[in-house]
Specification:
26% of the residues are buried. The chain is globular, with a radius of gyration of 29 Å. It has a two-stranded antiparallel ribbon with strand order 1-2. Strand 1 and strand 2 form a beta hairpin. By secondary structure, it is mostly helical. It contains 14 helices and two strands; from the N terminus they run H-H-H-H-E-E-H-H-H-H-H-H-H-H-H-H. Helices cover 67% and strands 1% of the residues.
Length: 335
């Protein structure tokens, strides 16, 4: 009776033949074979990039660790001196000054850049009125995003030369010319040790803001408009919309931006090289570790000592990125 009913159901009109039952073990075997068949393709696709990365990135890093333990000057065979180069760093005034400068840059650059970028992104995407009277982008927001992004496409050397004219210490400079119009004496933006570093940081902020305006705008555009409309119906103002709705949903982008800007803060070589007085001056008031590495390696031929600086800079950067990702980690908000 049961056998007959099974045949009757399998041959019922419109149902077609009964599906073939596959055992779980057979399914796992087929899936495992399929994955194994993909391994040669994946390995072949990644082999060349991984090899290039190992040769041109990991290899030089490992070699730098080795050279940092020597007194190599580029000509003779290096002599092993252990950790003497690292001990000498603790007594190097220029290197200590560079570390302090990185600390101030690490505080000022990400804070100012991300704050300004968030402000403009919010205005461009939520600062106007959308359809139906809800929150929406301002008119011409696409054009403004292009304008904000333009400094990002300029080479650092071009930006440095441009701001040499902007910061010119006489009234012929743009900033001092404006100050002269209101009766303020010219300011030595790059010649004053108390102002030079902050003037350079301002240039980096100016160049970097546009990228993060576009990044945050893309993140805000992906937030459903219904969330803003619901918050507005509940009586939320622009301030509440930003801190209670927009900022939590942009946390991942904000975290990435902070890490990127922190890495930039540990570099700063090109802009300081071009814009500062006497390459890190005056009186080492703008020097950074990358500039000290360049000076010791290619001016004084102290490659072992420069490599020791590079090793310290490497670990500082890695530590900062790891700590930032750890401290700012939070539960992801789904929408």
């Amino acid at each position: 009776m049961r056998q007959g009913s099974d045949i009757e159901i399998s041959e019922a009109p419109g149902l077609g033949p009964a599906p073939e039952k596959r055992s779980p073990r057979k399914g796992r075997l087929l899936g495992g074979r399929k994955r194994r068949s993909q391994y040669p393709f994946i390995i072949g696709f990644l082999a060349a990039p991984v090899l290039l990365y190992a040769v041109f990135v990991i290899g030089p890093y490992l070699q730098a660790f080795q050279i940092a333990l020597t007194d190599w000057r580029g000509l003779k065979t290096p002599d092993y001196i252990g950790f003497d180069n690292f001990k000498a760093l603790l007594e190097d005034d220029a290197f200590i000054s560079a570390l302090w400068h990185h600390l101030w840059i690490l505080i000022a650059l990400p804070s100012a850049t991300l704050a300004i970028a968030l402000f403009f992104s919010f205005l461009l995407n939520v600062g106007g009125k959308g359809k139906g009277g809800g929150a929406g982008g301002v008119r011409g927001s696409a054009f403004y995003k292009v304008v904000f992004f333009l400094p990002q496409v300029l080479a650092v050397a071009i930006v440095g030369v441009l701001f040499q004219s902007v910061y010119r210490p006489t009234s012929s400079g743009m900033v001092n010319g404006l100050l002269d119009e209101v009766g303020i004496a010219p300011v030595q933006w790059l010649n004053d040790p108390d102002l030079a570093l902050w003037s350079i940081i301002a240039v980096v902020v100016w160049q970097s803001v546009g990228f993060y305006v576009v990044l945050f705008s893309a993140g805000m555009a992906s937030i459903p408009r219904e969330l803003f409309e619901a918050a507005a119906l509940d009586g939320a103002g622009r301030f509440t919309l930003f801190f209670r709705v927009t900022l939590p949903l942009l946390w991942d982008s904000l975290q990435v931006g902070w890490v990127y800007l922190g890495i930039i803060a540990f570099d700063m070589f090109a802009i300081v090289q071009v814009l500062s007085v006497d390459r890190g001056g005056p009186d080492n008031s703008t020097t950074v570790v990358a500039l000290e590495i360049y000076r010791n390696a290619f001016t004084y031929s102290k490659f072992g000592y420069a490599s020791a600086m590079g090793v310290v800079l490497f670990f500082m950067t890695i530590t900062f990125a790891a700590l930032t990702l750890r401290v700012t980690r939070r539960e992801r908000v789904e929408f």
